[in-house]
Amino acid sequence: MALAGPSGAGKDTLLAAAQAELAGDPRFHFARRSVTRLPTPGGEAHEPLTPAAFEAALAAGQFLLHWRAHGLGYGIRHAEAPGGCVVVLSLSRAVLLEAAALRPLTVIEVTAPPALLAARLAGRGREDAAAIAARLAREVPLPPALDVRRVVNDGTVEAGTARLRSALEAVAAACLPGGIRP
């Protein structure tokens, strides 16, 4: 299961909240990304890598999936995507087809109105107005023929988390005994 959507949609926030609520539920594994960015308070709980360490891991074939966006390198290590029904991956829209070629994939697209996206990005304090505008201008449509469910995150964290959790539960409900997706 891939979580995707534009910057500022609240993917990391909702993902962290859903992960906390579903802690200990054996149906779900929440994959941790490797990112060439230092951790930030309130940001994604990722494996921070230097660009050199990222390139070394890439050269050694340690990533199941990898991509570059916004000047950063992102990767999902093989160990972070074990077999089972619902492996939750936060992915770039640009690698969804590659992920779908590896195993059955449901995409949960988290989105929000453009003005809210801009306000959230500004609130992070990580980028100037020009960088925020560039993020918002980056249009990467979802590839056709994927199983996509949409979560609109335009209210409270609790409401968005409830919507995401409902979508996750629906994906898990479709699993066969033994954690296999039909």
TrEMBL record:
It comes from Sediminicoccus rosea. It catalyses: alpha-D-ribose 1,5-bisphosphate + ATP = 5-phospho-alpha-D-ribose 1-diphosphate + ADP. It is an enzyme of class 2 (transferase). Belongs to the ribose 1,5-bisphosphokinase family. Catalyzes the phosphorylation of ribose 1,5-bisphosphate to 5-phospho-D-ribosyl alpha-1-diphosphate (PRPP). Its EC number is 2.7.4.23. HAMAP family: PhnN (MF_00836). This is Ribose 1,5-bisphosphate phosphokinase PhnN. ATP binds at residues 5-12. Pathway: Metabolic intermediate biosynthesis; 5-phospho-alpha-D-ribose 1-diphosphate biosynthesis; 5-phospho-alpha-D-ribose 1-diphosphate from D-ribose 5-phosphate (route II): step 3/3. Coiled coil: none annotated. Signal peptide: none annotated. The gene is phnN. It comes from the Bacteria. Keywords: ATP-binding, Nucleotide-binding, Transferase.
